[in-house]
Amino acid sequence: MRQRLALAMALVGEPDLLVLDEPTTGLDPNGAAEMRTILREEADRGATIFFSSHVLEQVEAVCDRVGILQNGRLIATDGTLDAVERVDGVETAVERDGTIEATCTNDAKMDALVELHDAGVEVVNFRTEEASLEDMFVEFTGGERA
């Protein structure tokens, strides 16, 4: 009941910013689900919500951006892909096992590296791979490989 009361008090006046520390602690599964629904509604309303939790399932269910803290330092964020995708000439960017793969024009390579650096990402290795003639043909003709 304390968690629910604290959230109700925080929501009075429809604040633009909510800072919540472990908001689902002590709640039963129904209460946690209700809390997630309320937080999504607040986000849809336009509120910014900082949500701190060790329960990663709750974080995945509620958050659209994630930062990981270790010993008080921000060591990772999921915003790096967004930064790379915003670079002119970058068509796609995906992260797999700590590696970012991007499809981009030749002119965008350095800009993508600069964005990664500016986002605080340490680039350990960088390589390029040219598309094959077959890849280019399929791309230009809109066809599919057999």
Please provide a brief summary of the model.
This protein is of the alpha+beta class and 146 residues long. The protein is 41% helix and 22% strand. α4 (79-85) runs antiparallel to α5.
Describe the protein.
It is a single chain. The chain is an alpha+beta fold and 146 residues long. It has 2 domains: 63 residues, 3-Layer(aba) Sandwich (Rossmann fold), CATH 3.40.50; 66 residues, no CATH class. The chain is 41% helix and 22% strand. The strands form 3 sheets. It has a two-stranded parallel ribbon with strand order 1-2. α4 runs antiparallel to α5. The longest helix is centred in the N-terminal third of the chain and has 17 residues. The radius of gyration is 21 Å and the shape is elongated. 8% of the residues are buried.
The largest sheet, given as strand count, sense and whether it forms a barrel, is: 2 strands, parallel
Total count of helical runs of at least 4 residues: 6
Radius of gyration: 21 Å
Strand order of the largest sheet: 1-2
Proportion in helices: 40-55%
As residue ranges, the low-confidence spans are none
**Termini distance?**
60 Å
Supply the number of structural domains.
2
Average residue pLDDT: 83
Q: SS-based structural class?
A: alpha+beta
**Spatial shape:** elongated
What is the beta-strand fraction? 15-25%
Order of helices and strands: HEHEHEEHEEHH
The beta-strand count equals 6
Please write out the topology.
Blueprint: H1 2-11, E1 17-21, H2 29-45, E2 48-52, H3 56-62, E3 67-70, E4 73-77, H4 79-85, E5 90-96, E6 99-104, H5 109-118, H6 133-141
Parallel strand pairs: 1-2
Antiparallel strand pairs: 3-4, 5-6
